[in-house]
From TrEMBL, chains A, B:
Top enzyme category: hydrolase
Annotated cofactor note: Binds 1 Ca(2+) ion per subunit.
Positions annotated as active site in the UniProt record: 64 (nucleophile), 127
Domain named Sulfatase N-terminal: residues: 26-340
Protein name listed in UniProt: N-acetylgalactosamine-6-sulfatase
Coiled-coil stretches noted in the UniProt entry, renumbered to this chain: none
Subunit structure as annotated in this protein's UniProt entry: Homodimer.
Subcellular localization: Lysosome
Species, as recorded: Aegotheles bennettii
Primary location: other
Gene this protein is translated from: Galns
Residue numbers of 3-oxoalanine (Cys) PTMs: 64
Enzyme Commission no: 3.1.6.4
Amino acid sequence: SVGLGVMLLWQGESTFASFGVFFLQMGWGDLGAFGEPSKETPNLDQMAAEGMLFLDFYTANPLCSPSRAALLTGRLPVRNGFYTTNAHARNAYTPQDIVGGIPDSELLLPELLKKAGYINKIVGKWHLGHRPQFHPLKHGFDEWFGSPNCHFGPFDNRALPNIPVYRDWEMIGRYYEDFKIDLKTGEANLTQLYLQEALDFISKQQASQQPFFLYWATDATHAPVYASKHFLGTSQRGLYGDAVREIDDSVGKILQHLRKLGISENTFVFFTSDNGAALISAPKQGGSNGRFLCGKQTTFEGGMREPAIAWWPGQIPAGTVSHQLGNVMDLFTTSLSLAGLQPPSDRQIDGVDLLPAILQGKLIDRPIFYYRGNEMMAVRVGLYKAHYWTWSNSWEEYSKGVDFCPGQNVSGVTTHTQEEHTNLPLLFHLGRDPGEKYPLSFISEEYQRVMERISAVVHQHKVTMVPGEPQLNVCDKAVMNWSPPGCEKLGKCLTPPKSDPKKCFWPH
Amino acid sequence: SVGLGVMLLWQGESTFASFGVFFLQMGWGDLGAFGEPSKETPNLDQMAAEGMLFLDFYTANPLCSPSRAALLTGRLPVRNGFYTTNAHARNAYTPQDIVGGIPDSELLLPELLKKAGYINKIVGKWHLGHRPQFHPLKHGFDEWFGSPNCHFGPFDNRALPNIPVYRDWEMIGRYYEDFKIDLKTGEANLTQLYLQEALDFISKQQASQQPFFLYWATDATHAPVYASKHFLGTSQRGLYGDAVREIDDSVGKILQHLRKLGISENTFVFFTSDNGAALISAPKQGGSNGRFLCGKQTTFEGGMREPAIAWWPGQIPAGTVSHQLGNVMDLFTTSLSLAGLQPPSDRQIDGVDLLPAILQGKLIDRPIFYYRGNEMMAVRVGLYKAHYWTWSNSWEEYSKGVDFCPGQNVSGVTTHTQEEHTNLPLLFHLGRDPGEKYPLSFISEEYQRVMERISAVVHQHKVTMVPGEPQLNVCDKAVMNWSPPGCEKLGKCLTPPKSDPKKCFWPH
């Protein structure tokens, strides 16, 4: 549930010329431009100063895999299948033993871009399923350098295999074996490898005048946090800050590379994150959501509001700020628009085309839905957010020290039981109260007026909702990364245990 | 305990030419440049973009009067007398019935600047005592437009008189009577009056080539919050945001005025605040301290870390950021340095000269002390902060709904009893943990090493501390603003009750 990413589309000689996005797990409050007190992201701050800062940008889910599936399909996880029905309102993702993944029926952004002549590369974490049918090169990508799952480990290759790293169709090694991560010192040069992959790919596409889409989804800054030697110990914020600085530096180098190649005005770049900072890992391995409530795993602002920057020199006026309500799913629709393509008409697409907001400063009226698994927990309309359900995590987990809201406790809001408020939602004004601390009075005129509008939006959303087949229900140790393609060449094939499919257990 | 202010010094033809400061009650997180999510302070953000942003700047006390006394004397309140010994570690200020005020023995910045030929003006709230001997024109100011106390009210002129507004030596009216504040609509044009006073003063000094010091200390954004008609309803943040926008606009107009008159490169301007945002008044009347813990009245970061911007075109490189540990008391010493004066040598001055940090980017090693009344609660040395005492407020107050840390609760840190940690202070690393949520382990090597250094700093501070005579111990209804000078001309003299001096009660 992390990942930094960049998408880059370069369209050679055409009019709009290019497009790009970074995608990673950093919190709203991790960037200097968003008020991080150490202000150690000069390159991202510069990117914002040269482009457009989005202050009201969201992910589609407070967890990694569903958020990434939403980015690439333009659809809510409850539609594209990246959710579970094993229990009510549970966060689910794609660990090694997950049986499901991205269904063939889903149309991914690179599949569509291919039709317009784009070459598509993913660098970093895929996270949409690791079984053969879910391979990114079967879903529109032309190249891949990275891994299908989180870089957890080291594992013993008996109970759990170490996560493979792929180049295109085949694995070329495993984390902790061939790709070192020193958990003691925090040293790993993975971000440098990912950076080089990005630079090389961009150079190659520029040389061949080939439009491209680069999805740069590094493992950093997900726990276990790492940085390369050059960055270790350089941050006021400890190891997590070192990792942020390396990402920041990489973004700067990629933008500089585009400039050097003369294609910066042909390349649209977007930087954002897949979920809020994981406060559960703080302070050593987790970032900051600024003043927003709670973090990753929750549908409070800290779990789903993301840092976001659009950059396109010559097209986006420098130093602008947008209050457009945005969502990672919009990058699907916006990219298609940039490529001159229409979004698929045979299915519900949740992303909207942000180009009017980005290029003309318009504000598009659209809601933001906050889901946890199969439940719409909250909705934002304008500056108002209504919670239909509240939950942080269970008392049982919380009493064991699992805390998604450390140091924060808003009575009746950060609840440890799943509290339903459908009949009388908790309503917050995010302008006056971005920290979600002061619900509006149920008897106020403002509450009545606003809920009337929100109720209509929610009704419309619910009556037209057709959930996809849930992909994250079944787990089986036999499907883990025992013998990925290419393992024979490396002598790294392992023997899977007997198949034993079970309902996955999702604790929160 | 509020107030926006500007100090401006203009030195005509001399080399450094000029100097200035704004001083007000806004929180660290209230400015766009510091990550406020609505980003509604374009002028202050621009001031930062043209000047230097201080990220580690503090006030000398989490309450208004002591903080202002510290700014003007360069000394901690425990030295200049702005504290109480009525109870341990209590916040005290200068309400209408306070008997004390700034002692004649204290040397104020304008008194010293006068000797170098400066004309000094205070616009706004004085707050260093309202009895005749404490009048600002007796302490170095040449002009005054504003009031001696907070704009609380309306009062009945029987139990409590309405607060007078002075022009120079005499009152010219009272709040709520001659200077309207509509508590229902939030409308008041006071900030516009203060703005005009500033612009006129600057014009006059420029015309006569007279160096000046302007201390612009508006009542806004202290509760009761107000804004003028033009700004009402213009903010995403409600009335508080309207007030912030008006302050922001005023700062922009003052800077623009300096430019227009051709003296911007001769005028040093500093913007900061007297204490953290008053979360007790949130969300309707209180601001934001970003991700910092708690607010005004406390010695957590939210109570004492302040937004701060230095501006001096042609001298301060544009868009720079400083991690210099700074304090409002430094503005005393820095101003003297700019004016070519030495600080007094017959007393302890706590402020340091920030010019090496501002003009040459140097970092001066100096501690920050966090006091509440007569107690040093905490100290910051480098990135580490040690709490020797913790307290938010009493259980009794808290149970009545008085909450300085709404929605926040860090076990063992935001305590509701005065907890002493002198023998084993709670230690935080403010880089890794700016929110003061994760005390370092007492048995870690880091704790031992750091506390050794901090202990020496604290020992030195305590053994050389000579407290001043406490000024905030005695209250008497007879000393209130019944008959300020000039009241006869206006027919606004009231009859004081019989003198009945009592120990002031300071609940927190």
